[in-house]
Amino acid sequence: MKARGFSLLECLIGLTISFFVICACLGFFVGAEKSFFKLRDKEEAAQNALAALDKMRVDILRAGQGLAGAAAAGLVEPVVEVDHGLDDGGLLVTRAEKSYVLAADVAPGDSRVALESIADLKPGREVLIFDGGSGEVRTISSVARGVAEVSPAIEGAYAKETASLLLLERIGLALDSRQGVIRRRVNSSSAQPLLENAGSARFAVDRPANLVRVHFSLASEGDADYELCLFPKNPALSGKG
């Protein structure tokens, strides 16, 4: 008895069934791939948000560092709510980056301050000349040969034995809602992206309680909100809380 082969109809039916099975498998794998990439993107967004949160935490906790006396005298605000020129408000955090020893007394009207060292001093940076309860914030216009020239001129008198010059670091945090980016600005440099895909952000300083609150969310639907509530110790020690 001869072996009977497949008829044309049977071949067509087999091909049709195989086609549907392959399509179903492809649909499953495509769906699984989309789910994988969606979960991966969500995880990356969450990691970026946590990294931004940690960076803001470090910046805010350093507010007023090295400025206890100046903050107590009302010469510098360690952390304040400000408008950075973007769509939304933000924070300005200030600390003393470095302290310098005067090499000579400073008289009223002087614009040149002689220092024992000028390392890290650059034009455009802000400095605070400080002596006890008095002081002035000035901008460096030039630095050369142990002398920092500031603008405008110094109004008070400062003795080299008791006064010091503090190099200020200003850090600005704000939301650029037009681009959905939380930006971080250091001194007079351009604002750099700290967190992209930001949907909203709120910055607040509760001065009586000395609390700084930051709350932001991501633009992606279903993502969790992120929040900081910090007690900066330096403003509290200076009595500016």
Structural write-up:
- The chain has 241 residues and is α+β, with helices and mostly antiparallel strands.
- The protein has three helices and twelve strands, in the order H-H-E-E-E-E-E-E-E-E-E-E-E-E-H.
- The strands form two sheets. Strands 1, 2, 3, 4, 5, 6, 7, 8 and 9 form a nine-stranded antiparallel beta sheet that branches.
- The radius of gyration is 30 Å and the shape is elongated.
- The model has no long low-confidence stretch (mean pLDDT 87).
Task: Spell out the blueprint of helices and strands.
Layout: H1 8-61, H2 68-72, E1 79-83, E2 89-101, E3 112-114, E4 126-131, E5 134-144, E6 147-151, E7 164-176, E8 181-186, E9 192-196, E10 198-206, E11 211-218, E12 225-230, H3 233-238
Assign a percent range to the helix content: 25-40%
- Please give the count of helices: 3
Gyration radius from CA atoms, angstroms: 30 Å
Regions with pLDDT < 50 over 5+ consecutive residues? Answer: none
Average per-residue pLDDT, rounded, comes to 87
General shape: elongated
* Terminal residue distance: 102 Å
* Biggest sheet features: 9 strands, antiparallel
Oligomer: single chain
How many strands appear in the DSSP assignment?
A: 12
Strand content: 35-45%
Order of helix and strand elements from N to C terminus: HHEEEEEEEEEEEEH
Structural class: alpha+beta
Task: List the keywords.
alpha+beta; elongated; 12 strands; nine-stranded antiparallel β-sheet; 3 helices; 241 residues; 27% helix
Brief summary:
This protein has 241 residues and is α+β, with helices and mostly antiparallel strands. The chain is built from 3 helices and 12 strands.
